[in-house]
Amino acid sequence: MRVISGTLRGRRLIAPPGMATRPTTDRIRESLFNILAGSIQDRRVLDLFAGTGALGIEAISRGAASAVFVDQARAALAAIRRNIRDLGLDARTRIIHWDIRKNLNCLASDPQAFDLVFMDPPYETHAVAPALRALISSGAMAPDTRVIIEHSAREPVHHPMGTLALVDQRRFGKTLVSFMKPVL
After folding, report:
1. E-strand spans in 12-163?
2. What is this structure's pTM?
3. Quick one: pLDDT at residue 19?
């Protein structure tokens, strides 16, 4: 797996061994970032269920100011740490060990809201709804935040009415990518 574009283009990323982490495919990542092309520069990124950190790292490579990576799996956190270290991104990143499904209180010490949030939970674990609730109640979203969720087509996104609106959705085989924005 490699960074697709930007200043880190072609650089290799490692993934944890085994099947516990399911990295976003290059095809989906490329399509996703083509859709977001004009809305990455200088953004603060939150990568939830970060896995390898590929989404946040790709955003930094394409001009995002910083990224915070949150995951619960120790193997995923080790892979993210190594990827960040190997790419020299320590000064622009933060890695947090946390159970996103419960809450996102781990973000309380972060004074600025996030402009771009990636969420890629394990498929069919019903983690999308609790993670969305945790994100909304965290107060970590800027008014114009874009929330991008990669999820199984068999696990549709149900969003709290009046809080987030589904603005676009793309299908890649058995995977859906849902694009959401806060309702003003």
Report:
1. 44-48, 66-71, 93-97, 114-119, 141-152
2. 0.94
3. 56
